[in-house]
Amino acid sequence: MNWVTIVWSMGAGACLTLAVIHIVVWWKDRTARANLVFSVTAIAVAAFAAIEFAMMRAETPEQFGIAVRWVHVPVWVITVSLVIFVRLYLKAGRLWLAWAVVGLRTLSLILNFTLSPNINYRQMTALRHVSFLGESVSAPTGVPNPWMLVAQLSLLLLVIFVTDATIAAWRRGERRKALIVGGSIVLFTVAGTVQGITITWGIISMPLTASLFFQGLVAAMAWELSYDVLHAATLARRLEISEAGLRESEERFRIVADAAPVLIWMSGVDKLCTFFNKPWLEFTGRSLEQEIGNGWAEGVHPDDLQKCLDVYTESFDARKPFVMQYRLRRYDGEYRWISDQGVARFDAQGNFTGYIGSCVDVTELISKERALRESEERMSLAAEAAKVAVWEWDLSTDEVWTTGTHRQIPGPPVSEKGTMESFIGRLHIDDREAVRKALKASINNGGDFASEFRVMLPDGRVSWAVARGRCIKTPDGKNMRFRGVSMDVTAQKDADDLFRLATESSLSGIVLVNDQGHIMLVNSQVEELFGYQREELVGKSVDVLVPERFAVQHPAHRAKFLAAPTTRAMGAGRELFARRKDGSEFPVEIGLNPIQTPDGIVVLTTVVDITARKLAEAEALRHREELGHLSRVAAMGELAASIAHELNQPLSGIVSNAAAGQRFIDRGDVDLTELRELLADINADGRRAGDVIRGIQSMVRKRAPARERVNLNDLIMKVVQMVKPNAMLHSCELGTFLDPGLPAVEGDPVQLQQVLLNLVINAFDAMRDTSVRSRKVAIATERSGDGTIRISVRDYGVGIPEEARERLFDQFFTTKREGLGMGLGIVRSIVESHGGTIAAENADGGGARFQFNLPVTSVGAASAHP
Questions:
Q1: Which of 174, 484, 799, 801 registers the highest number of CB atoms within 10 A of its CB?
Q2: Does 218 lie in the same domain as 103?
Q3: What is the phi/psi pair of residue 626, to 5°?
Q4: pTM
Q5: How open is the CA angle 607-605-593, to the nearest 5 degrees?
Q6: Domain CATH code at residue 427
Q7: Where is 29: in which H helix or E strand?
């Protein structure tokens, strides 16, 4: 056995041994996740060393390349594990940077298995044998792969991530952890990376020994984790000594607690009770063994138990004091009310150790409080049920008694004893005098008191309240006291103000209509839209806003809506009109929102005038049709040669047949049979010329779009027939590949013909610089799986420049020197108006492919052309 084998075997074995040790540590304490991550790191370093050893023993470049490829797997595990370890152990490190390290390392791993032979080398040319530790080992010679920079960048990010986490831990005071863990990761990672870079790029000639650096890293991490284990053992010994002293203190406490005149209990950090003093045990008549843990809960009244446990648990979790009352069974079986006060306990180091509490029998006190409370409850029960407050003013002493509800209205605390003037002093300054006058008038005249006023709350807010009252006199007619009720109406006032503000600020007209069809409310926008003043509309039938031609049907529509009211748009799919005061009509959109009220259903209606939108849509439609017409005229200009050819053939036939007939007549030996045949040929050629002219007229005529069922294969063959002469002029081969079983589509045949003509003419233009032998245009159709038909036009030209692909279908964008940039924009608008989509791409083998999809109609199939 040589030194290389010894060193690498011992290093890998040490890593595996440390991994097993720390897996055991984690198994005993599942919270020690850093130990588990360290074990994964150590195993990966051992695997790294084994593969590195195989690289030294490689006999061929292929074997070395395979080893280099697979060494990236443990390197990936090491990188990810180090990121996780730093986050767990140092409790630092930016999360986004951690994800960047993992993501970039994962990308390098994918590239490593994608590229050949690996990410380090583009080509392994040879292996050199160099002397290392007294023996001959393999060193690589090859062409470095630039993609290796991805792996190196991931290690650079790892160094930055660890450095950032180390600085954070250092500033936090954990300098030893930061120095050993963070410093070793940065040092050994940089050293291993530098060695790998210099070897790969041929700067130094030696075998790869980066695993030794990572073994050093594992040793540093293991030393730091072992230090934590030893530190924990030291703390455990100190804890044992302190617990002995604590037990002595607790014994003294038990003596004092047993002599106390109250019931005392204690619990530990697990919420279970560990101690009850002698008075508690005597009160319950139970032993300490019966009470500890949760045994004490057996004596709590069943009706109080859950609330008691909830208060205890919530306070315990928050480490806050609590006071609660519950019924506890006494030794004689009687349940007594107990007032229990508990506080959290902490040791000298501030560590939480549980709770301690004391209990007092308050049964008699609660009985007295209940009697007092019941007398007040009887007085305020009716008022509380009605959500009003009851108050009484003693005129002789100027004292005011109120229920708690009323005291919250003017602002003083419930426990405060007030005077009428103190109550009035809390009102808004503008309302005080009015309230005083109303009270004085009621006292002097013996009438009822009624007032609405604003109250200034302590936090500066304003509350609205209404009050009603009456002066009570003695039998001899003297004023004795004033009794009344009051109610907070702030919410109602706020709701009214908000509703008014919302309706008035709305850009839409708002009409509130009751279930009888009468207008209850309108906003200012309705006045502007319809020309009415709101006083003219409120109380009137909503039919006054409906055009006369729809007024007869409107009540039936309204009744149908009220039978099943839902929030929706009115007249979906139909054009709606409203009527102004002057009788003129205008287009609108109307939204209906039913609202349930105590008086029945009311409908909140929003009205939007869409006159401007309709005019804009009509103008846009006119422009689109004009552009389409111009595009078709331009396309026919491109097809001038085809048109001339199509007309030349029938016209030449007409001239030839007419000349032949003239010769027959001139010779005087007219054969009527031959003359009829000549006239029939002339008639046929005339019809052919007429068909050509009508086809041209249909393309260039301004017309409204007309949809019908279209056979795409037939349409394509017509276009092919039209452009054949142009194909000959461009020395271009024109081919079709048509699916014979295509169903029909719903569309405008002229517009679809325009789309195909534009795409085919563009294909001819794209091949001006292409050799004559390669000039081909292929038109294909096929059935897509998404219920559409795909039509494609492919050329073998220069293709689509990358910078032009995103803007290819924009209006006025062109790659031609003489183009206007309208053709493809119009093509896209036509396809999209037919519910389809269009796209362009560079085809394999050169050239470009334009393809568009059109939805299939429900019935019908197209016949195929051969």
A1: 484
A2: yes
A3: -65, -45
A4: 0.34
A5: 135
A6: 3.30.450.20
A7: none
